[in-house]
Amino acid sequence: MKRILIHAAFGTVAICCAAWGVSSWVRLQHAAQVNRAIAAVSAAHATNATNATSATSAGSREDGAGDGDAPQVQLARATMLSKAGDYDAAARLYNGLIHEGRLDDLGRAALFDLGNMYLREGSIDGGARALRSIAMVNEAKARYRLVLRSAPGDWDARYNLERALWLAPETQSALDQPDVKEQHNVKLRDAQSMDLP
Predict the structure, then answer these.
(1) Alpha-carbon span 195 to 197, nearest angstrom
(2) pTM for the whole structure
(3) Superfamily assignment of 66-174 in CATH?
(4) Considering Cα of 138, then 140, then 141, then 147, what sign does the dihedral take?
(5) 3-state SS string over 8-34?
(6) Is residue 145 within a helix (H) or strand (E), and if so which, with residue range?
(7) What is the pLDDT of residues 4-31, one digit of tens each?
(8) How far apart, in whole angstroms, are the C-alpha atoms of residue 24 and residue 165?
(9) CA torsion sign, 29 to 34 to 40 to 46?
(10) More confident: 136 or 171
């Protein structure tokens, strides 16, 4: 009886180890497949970047998030599009990876990269782009704050938020607006209290 229990325990441990090995192998294969897909996206984007018309057609082709690719591949595509200057397609891909209810590691990475893209776009100097630059920096600040809500210890997001606040401070707007009491205290010029009904 004791021998049967020992063999049963050993068999159970062996089955658990085999299941763990199979699940690790499956995860490894999936990671290798994702890495190959990311490398293919990088190579295709690098070859298409030399030809402007090819880059435009690749951008419209690559911006579809529903083609069954892994989210890591979509993040790599969005990063490539952002670096190429196709901000609209990159923003669509980044926003497709962000789930408001539950923000996982990939969603935080997409939010952070989207904030970086907005900050980069907003940092471009130019008189005609001044209003757009402020709007882009404000969008970047909002993205960094969302990242910090879900991961308060993210020092990269803190640093970039501080940088964005340095580019577009928020305290100045509060000083420019009059106090609420000053808005409601209306005084009539040369009017006496007996003149009013």
Answers:
(1) 7
(2) 0.60
(3) Tetratricopeptide repeat domain (1.25.40.10)
(4) positive
(5) HHHHHHHHHHHHHHHHHHHHHHHHHHH
(6) helix 130-150
(7) 889 899 999 999 999 999 999 998 888 7
(8) 44
(9) negative
(10) 136
